[in-house]
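Technical appendix A lists one of the benchmark inputs used to test multi-chain prediction within the project. The record comprises two sequence entries:
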Amino acid sequence: MHSDTLRGARAMLPILLGVTPIAVVTGVAAVQAGLTKPEAMCSSVVMYAAAAQLVVYDLMRQHADLAVAFAASCVLNLRFLMYSAGVAPHLQGRGRLPRLLGAYALTDQAFGLSMVERQNNPGGNTAAYYLGAAACMWVAYQAAAAAGILLGAGLPPGLSMDFALPLTFSALLAPLLSRPELRAAALVSAATALSLRGLPNNAGFFAAALSGIAAGVAYQRGAARRARPAGCAKGESDA
Amino acid sequence: MLDRWPIWLLILGIGAANFLLRYSFLLIFGRGSVPEPVREVLPFIPAAALAAIVAPQVFAEPLAGHLVGPRLLAWLGAMLVAWRTRNMPLTIAGGLALLWVLQAVLPAGPIH
């Protein structure tokens, strides 16, 4: 195996500590939503996106409309567009198979590692590094999901396991809140979701996400405008 | 199996949509880049979407007239754990364990 592939896989190892617990939660949520064990495992392999999976399982559990579940997962996964653009240069000129696999296994974590590697080691084989990191993440994620599926199937009912969803999402959200523009987005979104929570078809969720994004963009534009006089002068002296 | 086809349709549909989003720029690379308005909006999606999902689930009890329910208290406890330890497994396990204890101890409210 290429040494860059191994380096990528090794760089992923410490990150797995944060990822595998979420994968376990998705496995538990899948069986608690009423999927059989094979269905749960297949859905984990086919979707391979923890946040979207958790939301879709939660909506399945509530017998929500399937089109709503599909739309909600698309909103959560739009960020892959950004990552896709980020890793495209690494895989440019590679064969069809590495690009297909690289796209399928694209995650926040593999994307992040590959961008750091590209910066630290511009002459290296970033494609091999990225694929190694992505493969390591995929194996660990699916193994942890399988463990969660077995665990979830063995749990007695009445344990309120659905509560793992807000806990997991809060833990993912917390580090984002240190940035003021993201804090504005989250606050406005939460307030909208609370005030519109009774609407049918989870319309409150979509309205909340939209209003939060709009608030974040508005905040950032405002901050950029306020910073412009000083920023301009600095930019000119740098150039 | 017949009654399971909508579920499979959903799973496969989401899988296909996910793949297309992930493959998009690998497919068109050299012929385009993320348009500026999209680039501006994308970083806000995770924070806004996560908050939109969390808030109604955590504040369901106060909104239903049950001022301090077990879920809100357990969530506050879990956030304390998250803040002090930054440990994801401990946050999830601690929040769930706290919820079970509070559900056993607190008087029953309108929501569990």
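The CA atoms of residues 10 and 16 of chain B lie 10 Å apart. The mean pLDDT of chain B is 86. Comparable benchmark entries are summarised in Table A2.
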